[in-house]
Design a protein that fits this description.
Chain lengths: 435, 241
């Protein structure tokens, strides 16, 4: 909750009151001089009203508190406190990407008002900027204008339910929910093998032993595969935050609140992937291509999901990013999901480098579906050049063995990820061939 | 001798003009498309009962027209030769007061009304001139002018796309009603006074009405707070800034 700094200055008389009272005085004077009582009577109510407004001039301050509603994304309660003689309050509530709400509300003492906004944007964002001005009884006396700067709120991304997900080439550890190729316990049948030191009598397959070695000179055991966990690193490219309208790419005008930007899509994709992998008992970490210091080391469990979501929500472009000399270090055998718009070559270069280093890499394209109808010929041509370069980049990535998923088409992305997962299970695909 | 390539030849003046025209047309089409596109979602301020701000913004213009209609109804203004001027200025005032309610249009328009009233017949006359609706017109005019001076400052605080809570309008109406009661009583008293002047019964009425008007005025001024309260003793806490 934040209280605005009290607006300074006394309540002032509007020029309309002075002008109205002046004209009424003229009417009374002229009517009296010319002996026209009807003209005098015209001015009397205006004079009386002005006298009343001056006499009931409010004194005191108007305070506005904005209390975010817990559990709701962009909703707050405005608590307005006005001096006793104030009768109304002029309110203007705004936030970027939304149309401003303006209202003249009655206020006597303390008043609570609900304000909300709908937005598909996630991450850190300002809540509501409230500008206010007290208004006296007859609207001829107004208080000093006040301004309550917006609080910053963090809107966490919410993922969507994904089906099967691709797995890295190598699983780690001896626990998890995925079967690895190594012998161990917990998985399905791996092979039938002669008894060796270290095998237990419970593993002996007596039927096979009887068939292969009727004289019992050799025992045979059933060996099972070990379980393992995948390590997935979600690499988000926070250097770009572009909306569907290319006219907003320069920063002005602002992106509409009902338009998800590339970073919103990246957050949503990363959250969905993290939920999916962590729900399957895997380890997930987050890397940011835009800023060197931010990273969530890989971990598992519910708390890790909270950490990942919090980290994703904090991602935002920060100035001119430094050029990376080498890609961020990734744990050996990890699956790398690179979420980027691929509008510049750096993310693609990183993905290719990881792929060359032996990681399984999936490039998730998070560029929103563009609205090109508002562009004039020159801008359209420029955009076509940029998109052609991007398409070449993605085609090169695909040719080098990196799987590409376009996230903006939700069902197609889910299907594509499931296809990659199945291909990996069969061992024919690139992503998910486990060892 | 160098031969000029056809592709390098600069475009002629006509081609350049055509290209500029095409670009201008594209820019215009672009602006139209953006204007027709649905606007972004708005911030929702939940108010229990409210009216659109456009209604309040239009109210002063309607009142300006109503005032002129009341003044010019009798035909005396038209007969005085300033009828057309009054109507033109009224139309101008209506447009300006709707667009710029902060400007002192209501005050200037009140002066214009006074000129029109002075140019016409006395609105307090009840007989002798063939005009019997004068007092009613005066009562209506007193109400309309007062309304205009109350609604215009209210409209100055309202945006076209904003909302005005009904409670604000009710409070404005209550404030207006108190003053109007006194003023209409004053009008009635003045009419009676003018009607009975010169006769013994009329003189008694004049005295009674005068006393009544003074009492009503005093009560209204006291209730409205126009008469200042005694000053607070020194040392008392104060919220004055």
């Amino acid at each position: 909750m934040t209280t605005d700094p009290a607006p300074a200055g006394p309540w002032r008389v509007e020029p309309s009151l002075v002008a109205g009272a002046g004209s009424a005085l003229v009417l009374v004077a002229v009517g009296a001089l010319l002996g026209r009582a009807d003209v005098v009577l015209l001015g009397v109510p205006v004079l009386l009203g002005a006298a009343g407004a001056l006499a009931r001039r409010p004194r005191g301050e108007v305070h506005v508190d904005v209390r975010p509603r817990p559990g709701e994304r962009l909703a707050a309660e405005l608590v307005v406190t006005a001096p006793p003689s104030a009768r109304a309050l002029r309110l203007r509530v705004s936030r970027p990407g939304h149309r401003t709400a303006e209202a003249l509300v009655a206020v006597e003492g303390t008043r609570r008002l609900d304000v909300r906004a709908a937005s598909v944007r996630t991450g850190g964002q300002p809540l509501f900027l409230v500008e206010h001005q007290g208004v006296g009884t007859d609207a001829d006396v107004v208080g000093p204008p006040g301004r309550r700067e917006p609080d910053d709120v963090l809107v966490l991304p919410t993922g969507r339910r994904l089906g099967e997900l691709p797995l890295p080439g190598r699983l780690r550890g001896l626990s998890g929910q995925h079967e690895s190729r190594r012998p161990g316990s917990g998985g399905g049948l791996r092979d039938i093998h002669p008894f060796e030191p270290g095998d237990t009598p419970r593993q002996v397959d007596w039927k096979v032993t009887a068939r292969r070695s009727p004289a019992l000179e050799q025992l045979y055991v059933r060996r099972t595969t070990a379980l393992g966990e995948a390590v997935v690193i979600v690499v988000v490219d926070s250097r770009d935050d572009v909306g569907p309208d290319p006219l907003t790419w320069s920063g002005t005008p602002a992106v509409r609140a009902d338009d998800a930007t590339s970073l919103d899509l990246a957050r949503q994709a990363a959250a969905a992937l993290a939920e999916g992998y962590l729900g399957g008992g895997d380890r997930v970490g987050v890397e940011d291509l835009g800023v060197h210091r931010r990273a969530v080391r890989s971990g598992s469990g519910r708390r890790q999901l909270d950490r990942v979501l919090q980290q994703l929500a904090w991602l935002r472009p920060e100035g001119d990013p430094q050029t990376r000399v080498r890609p961020p270090r990734i744990p050996a055998g990890a699956l790398v999901q690179v979420l980027s718009t691929f509008l510049d070559p750096e993310a693609a270069a990183m993905a290719a480098a990881w792929h060359r280093a032996g990681h399984t890499v999936v490039a998730v394209d998070v560029l929103p579906r563009l609205r090109m109808r508002d562009l004039d010929t020159r801008r359209r041509l420029a955009l076509r050049l940029v998109l052609a370069e991007r398409d070449d980049r993605l085609a090169d990535l695909a040719a080098s063995g990196v799987d590409v998923v376009r996230w903006v088409d939700a069902p197609a992305a889910t299907t594509r990820l499931a296809t990659l997962a199945r291909a990996g299970r069969r061992g024919h695909g690139r992503a998910g061939a486990r060892g | 001798m160098s031969r000029r390539e056809p592709g390098r030849r600069p475009p002629s003046r006509g081609v350049r003009a055509l290209a500029r025209g095409r670009e201008a047309l594209e820019r215009w089409a672009h602006r139209v498309r953006r204007r027709r596109a649905p606007g972004p979602p708005g911030v929702v301020l939940e108010l229990p009962r409210s009216v659109p701000g456009a209604l309040v913004r239009l109210a002063p213009a309607v009142l300006v027209v109503a005032c002129t209609a009341v003044v010019t109804t009798g035909g005396t203004v038209a007969g005085s030769g300033i009828g057309t001027t009054v109507r033109v200025l009224t139309a101008l005032a209506a447009v300006v007061v709707a667009g710029r309610p902060r400007w002192p249009v209501a005050a200037l328009f009140t002066l214009l009304l006074a000129v029109a009233v002075l140019a016409g017949g006395d609105l307090l006359l009840t007989d002798g001139t063939g005009e019997t609706a004068g007092p009613w017109r005066l009562a209506a005019l007193v109400l309309a002018v007062h309304l205009l001076h109350r609604v215009t400052p209210l409209a100055a605080h309202v945006a076209w796309g904003g909302r005005v809570e009904t409670a604000v309008l009710v409070r404005t109406a209550q404030s207006l009603l108190r003053v109007q009661l006194a003023c209409q009583a004053l009008v009635l008293g003045t009419v009676l006074l003018r009607a009975g002047a010169g006769t013994p019964l009329g003189d008694d009425r004049v005295r009674a009405v005068a006393v009544g008007a003074v009492v009503v005025l005093a009560v209204v001024l006291h209730r409205s707070g126009a008469v200042p309260e005694p000053a607070e003793p020194a040392g008392a806490p104060s919220a004055v800034h």
